[in-house]
Amino acid sequence: MLSRLLHRPSQTRSPRSIARLLVITLCVATASLGCHAGDEVDSSETAVTPASKVNAETNAMSKSDSVEPQVVKTIVGPFNPLTPEEAYVILEKGTERPGDHGLTLTKDPGTYICRRCNAPLYHAKHKFVSHCGWPSFDDEIKGAVARHPDADGRRVEIVCANCDGHLGHVFEGEQLTPKNVRHCVNSISMKFIPEGKELPAKIVQPESKSDNTSEPTDKDPAKD
Ligand SMILES: [Zn+2]
């Protein structure tokens, strides 16, 4: 009974209205195949809506991807992870490009610490303008910087006494300051902590007698 009632209207449709329905159906079908029919606007709307949704989604995805740049960091031991540029200088004893970038022109009061282990290396009062293109200091925080003969046989390499990270070279006898010493340090080997800001804790390598060289560690690593 109910089905009869439901079917009745279609059954009672005139052949003309059925033909119109068929035409509309055909139009929609052909429009979806790219037909430039009169109902182009309707078909384009239905075609664009899902596509624009997808685009919005992919745009959102690409935006969120670009927010997080992929930076591979080198992690050696317990120390701060290093970017490839930092690792090239600090671990492979490379030299950064000279210039007025980085910490070369920094004059603010504060402390220069090791980028790798946070050990305080230089005070701002040790810094002077040498115009050599790298940050220059004529003194260091006591015990913070170790000196080694450079592989080139001429210069003296300076490294962080705590983590052995490469800092640069030290030169004497240039008469640039009364102390007559120039620590020529790569900006990338350091981090500047402005005065008043808390210094991060120094990261100390746990003692490993088997792995390390037989360097005597008579000083207390906990002491600064
Ligand atoms: Zn260090």
> DSSP helix count?
4
The dominant shape is globular
Helix content: 25-40%
The number of domains is 2
Q: What is the CA-atom radius of gyration, in angstroms?
A: 36 Å
Q: Count all strands and give the number.
A: 9
Order of helices and strands: HHHHEEEEEEEEE
Estimate what percentage of residues fall within beta strands: 15-25%
> Averaged pLDDT, please?
75
As residue ranges, the low-confidence spans are 1-15, 17-64, 210-224
CATH fold-level label of the largest domain: Metal Binding Protein, Guanine Nucleotide Exchange Factor, Chain A
Strand-pairing-aware structural class: alpha+beta
What's the story with the biggest beta sheet? 6 strands, antiparallel
Q: Can you list the strand order of the major beta sheet?
A: 3-4-8-7-6-5
What is the H level of CATH, i.e. the homologous superfamily of the largest domain? Peptide methionine sulfoxide reductase
Query: What is the architecture of the largest domain at the second tier of CATH?
Result: Beta Complex
How far apart the termini lie comes to 96 Å
Small-molecule binders here are: zinc ion
What is the CATH first-level class name of the largest domain?
Answer: Mainly Beta
